[in-house]
Amino acid sequence: MSQATTVDTGYEPRVHQVELHSALKRFNVIVCHRRFGKTVFAINEMLDQGLRLYAQRGLTDRPRPRFAYIAPTYGQAKKIAWDYFKAFCSNIPGATVNEAELRVDISLFGDPTNTLRFQLLGAENPASLKGIYLDGAILDEYAEMLPRTWTEAIRPTLSDRKGWAIFIGTPKGRNHFYEIHDYASNADGWFTKIYKSSDTGIIDAKELEEAKRTMPPEVFNQEYECSFEGSTLGSYYGDLMRDCYNGGRIINVPYDPAMPVHTAWDLGIGDEMVVWFYQRVFKEIHVIDYWEKANNEGLPEAIRMIQSRPYVYGTHFWPHDGGARELTTGKTRQETAEKLGLRPLHVAARLPVEDGIDAVRRTLPRCWFDDEKTKRGRVCLEEYKKKFDEKLGTFLPKPIHDQYSHGADGFRTLAMTLDMEMGSRENLPEYAESDYDPFSRRKDYGRSR
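Below the sequence we write its predicted structure tokens.
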């Protein structure tokens, strides 16, 4: 360009937003209280970086720049960010708004083959985000997305163009948003910052005091003080999982070759498939591993995964729907699994969900969880919650079906079949032949943090 071009979007950043704009690295995790202005900050950072990159069109190997703002759902993206996008782009020469696709294309220099594009997307189906390329991405309220939105969909889109990413949101317990914040605290090329309402001064003290008086403490601390510690309101197992953390029962739990490994499943249909791996060591339940996958390849993929693990198996436990016959083949999924080598296999009886939840609550105090291998599964247990009736203003005695329910349902299978290992198989010892001394196992345990 022969001379610099100044574009005024009308954005007037607050002091903390100014601080953030100058502190960002390639990957960023911003944990902030409600009404901080995170969406406005993120949109303007994206516009600024996009316009700067586009202005270097003759000096870069990244033509046709692409940027995306991603919300948990497409509807949320439109509701939260679309009006902001249109307003901030209204003064940009050459900007064309596409209402149908929530997209803004910019052609500042009259070259239709090299257009800058900003687009709003939803994360309901992470697989739908594959195949695109991005120079930058905003993941707003990442705590409400599936973890694979980042790992399987967005991260690969940034690779060849060395794109950047900003995760922004408010805590929702110790889930994957907490984990990526924790990772960013010590990783090269990553930046993270927590902005509490008590520190920023954006919301005045009287307003905060009023909110504190009328909100449950765990909700206030989560929404305004960015606390990851409180369990989700309405959580079935949040208090019990907190006891696991406080009691030191989330540690390095090694596989004990003297004991068989049992599995407990939840079977999804075009949804999630979940497997918990555990060992019974006297009165303790050692939960050593967890696997979760979108059921794109079905049962064969899951069984290959089971066979690839270095475990000696006891019994594989399925929920009651594993015994249902498929209309296309006339066979049960149990019959299919057994032909593929998943034996011995036990299908649990169909019992009320409430009984299963009660069984989980009785089981969790006996459980030790491997810190690394069961992270995602523990999040599912912590976030599994009751439905809330907005009209009645109360929780219903019924769980929400969401991204966490499959992991929790798989653990319910574990709890409801806990006393069936011996009865479901004949002449198979509870202890494998081994010189391993189970009484020495404790010395290998240690906190990973």
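DSSP finds 14 helices and 17 strands in the chain.
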